[in-house]
């Protein structure tokens, strides 16, 4: 290519002719003119060019000499060019990411001047990028925001990292919540600047606020539901106490046969109404999350026997055989929620008796061991009743569900019983189900994990006596008592009912209409027992109990048993009774038998006999 005696122009033409310079003829001619022009100027020349389609590059340096000759050096810079192209490609990709990432990015140098911002930050500030670069942080953000940011900036220039949340207003007047992250740029051990990343968390903050508001609204609704539940419980049970109490007292008098029949009808209707009220209140408590379980040791076999005695009269009325079978492996004493377990069994048995027109109803209790102490109780209630179609099995445990409307018309009921049973069983950790077909009867079953007990008596805790617990015991009341009882009740009808029941049991009764009168009476005279209503004007039963307990401690007096007799039936009401110092809780309406049983539990031995003649 290069031979002695050839001119510089001939050498360049030879380069073009051999295809070293790629491109069109026009491009080759332009290259020749460019090279010759620089050569004729007699000045040193430096340039780079691509000489092949494969991307090969040369760096050419020409040094003219005084005698007209020239020294030319050429370097293959292909690898360098490829590296530069790769760097440009990476830079373009990085810039693409920076411009489209949903955050605001800045780089500030040691003099707090912006050296880089992305377009999102420029949009946030409301200025073109060119008007931000080179200006100070104070100039761009303003004095107020700068004063907030300055402590964090100082921390970063000291080599630390930081992050803050800040409320700002963008260029369009929109309020934003920003989470700002700071990271120092360190070179040769010196902080040369920092990178700041602004993340818009407005949506998250607003969503959190909405969630908090929704939570508060739900809690407010639950509180309203609980308040309504408590009020309805009190307002419904208070008159029911008068109706059922007076009915029971009237039964103890001399009546003509027709009058007794009328009275029995009133009592059974009142009991049915009370069952409906209890079902509705239980369902409402479950819905409001206010129903809790209480674990204690109790005699399961005795409870089953009590249930049998309770329901046997109903079965005999319909000429049904009520059979109870308890597997010998079932322990007598177990630990669980006796009241709720009893409620489920009574409900299933009551349903079976209601829907069975002839034949028998069978209660079977079995258990299987889970571990040395843990047992899985299985209870089955089998009847020869009308049965339930298979397509209704899935819905029978839903609220207000019955097999069909004709059943409700024929047999009555709210349709809440089985729904409550399912909720209670699942709360106790068990399962519930049925096998049934029309005309062949039904078998309802449930399982319940329990713990085998070891004691023979129940633990000494605040007891709970309800009308359901002892309704079957409304038979002839045994020996009369000899006790001084203070009855605290503001409702005159309920006061009359309770006073008459207590007097019928042989008690000497003093009455108080409110909490203040109760405290005054209890601190002036000794009583063997106090029966306390909870909801009263001025000073309620809770406050009165606190005052009486304080007085007993201050004067070193014996603790007088205080029994709550109230229409408030929520779990928190029972817990509150325990907290203020009451010894037992009785829900209105309370039967004469339930009252008698409670007095026997709390009165001293010498008060359990009638007074001497």
For the biggest sheet, the summary is: 7 strands, mixed
State the end-to-end CA separation: 150 Å
| Overall average residue pLDDT | 83
Report the strand count: 21
Low-confidence stretches: 403-414, 456-479
Architecture blueprint of SSEs:
Blueprint: H1 8-17, H2 25-41, E1 45-50, E2 57-64, E3 70-76, H3 78-100, E4 104-109, E5 114-117, H4 119-125, H5 129-132, H6 137-141, H7 143-157, E6 162-169, E7 175-187, E8 190-200, H8 202-251, H9 257-287, E9 296-299, H10 300-317, E10 321-326, E11 333-336, H11 338-355, E12 360-369, E13 374-383, H12 405-411, H13 417-427, E14 432-436, E15 442-452, E16 463-465, H14 467-470, E17 484-488, H15 492-504, E18 508-512, H16 515-524, E19 529-532, H17 541-554, E20 562-566, H18 571-580, E21 584-587, H19 592-602
Parallel strand pairs: 10-12, 16-21, 17-18, 17-19, 19-20, 20-21
Antiparallel strand pairs: 1-2, 2-3, 4-5, 4-8, 6-7, 7-8, 9-11, 11-15, 12-13, 13-15, 14-15
Helix pairs in contact: 1-2, 8-9, 8-15, 9-13, 10-11, 11-13, 16-17
């Amino acid at each position: 290519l290069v031979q002695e005696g050839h001119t510089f122009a001939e050498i360049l033409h030879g380069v073009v002719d051999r295809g070293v310079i790629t491109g069109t003829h026009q491009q080759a001619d332009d290259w020749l003119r460019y090279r010759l022009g620089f050569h004729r100027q007699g000045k040193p020349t430096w340039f780079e060019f691509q000489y092949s389609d494969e991307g090969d590059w040369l760096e050419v340096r020409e040094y003219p000499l005084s005698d007209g000759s020239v020294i030319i050096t050429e370097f293959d810079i292909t690898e360098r060019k490829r590296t530069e192209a790769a760097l440009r490609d990476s830079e373009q990709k990085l810039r693409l990411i920076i411009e489209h990432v949903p955050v605001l990015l800045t780089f500030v140098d040691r003099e707090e001047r912006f050296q880089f911002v992305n377009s999102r930050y420029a949009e946030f500030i409301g200025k073109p990028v060119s008007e931000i670069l080179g200006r100070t942080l104070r100039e761009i953000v303003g004095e107020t925001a700068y004063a907030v940011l300055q402590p964090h900036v100082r921390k970063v220039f000291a080599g630390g990292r930081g992050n803050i949340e800040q409320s700002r207003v963008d260029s369009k007047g929109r309020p934003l919540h920003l989470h700002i992250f700071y990271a120092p740029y360190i070179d040769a051990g010196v902080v040369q600047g920092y990178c700041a990343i602004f993340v818009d968390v407005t949506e998250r903050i607003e969503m959190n606020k909405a969630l908090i508001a929704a939570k508060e609204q739900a809690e407010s609704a639950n509180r309203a539901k609980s308040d309504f539940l408590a009020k309805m419980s009190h307002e419904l049970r208070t008159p029911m106490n008068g109706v059922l109490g007076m009915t029971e007292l009237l039964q103890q008098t001399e009546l003509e046969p027709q009058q007794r029949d009328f009275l029995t009808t009133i009592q059974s209707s009142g009991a049915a109404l009370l069952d409906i009220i209890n079902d509705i209140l239980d369902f409402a408590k479950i819905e409001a999350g206010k129903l809790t379980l209480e674990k204690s040791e109790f005699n399961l076999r005795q409870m089953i026997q009590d249930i049998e005695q309770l329901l046997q009269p109903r079965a005999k009325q319909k000429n049904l055989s009520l059979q109870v079978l308890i597997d010998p492996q079932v322990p007598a004493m177990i630990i669980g929620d006796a009241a709720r377990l009893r409620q489920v069994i009574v409900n299933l048995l009551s349903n079976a008796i209601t829907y069975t027109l002839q034949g028998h109803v069978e209660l079977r209790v079995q258990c299987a061991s889970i571990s040395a102490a843990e047992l899985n109780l299985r209870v089955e209630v089998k009847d020869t009743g009308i049965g339930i179609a298979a397509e209704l099995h899935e819905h029978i445990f839903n609220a207000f569900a019955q097999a069909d409307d004709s059943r409700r018309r024929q047999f009555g009921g709210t349709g809440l019983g089985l729904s409550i049973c399912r909720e209670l069983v699942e709360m106790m950790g068990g399962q519930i189900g049925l096998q049934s077909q029309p005309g062949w009867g039904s078998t309802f079953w449930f399982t319940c994990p329990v713990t085998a007990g070891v004691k023979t008596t129940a633990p000494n805790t605040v007891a709970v006596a309800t009308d359901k617990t002892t309704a079957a015991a409304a038979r002839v009341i045994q020996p009369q008592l000899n006790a001084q009882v203070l009855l605290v009740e503001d409702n005159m009808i309920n006061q009359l009912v309770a006073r008459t029941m207590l007097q019928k049991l042989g008690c000497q009764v003093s009455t108080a209409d409110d909490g203040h009168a109760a405290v005054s009476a209890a601190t002036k005279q000794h009583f063997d027992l106090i029966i306390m209503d909870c909801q009263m004007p001025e000073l309620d039963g809770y406050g009165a109990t606190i005052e009486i307990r304080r007085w007993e401690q201050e004067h070193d007096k014996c603790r007088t048993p205080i029994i709550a007799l109230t229409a408030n039936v929520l779990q928190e009401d029972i817990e509150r009774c325990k907290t203020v110092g009451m010894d037992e809780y009785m829900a209105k309406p309370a039967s004469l038998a339930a009252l008698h049983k409670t007095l026997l539990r709390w009165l001293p031995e010498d008060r359990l006999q009638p007074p001497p003649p």
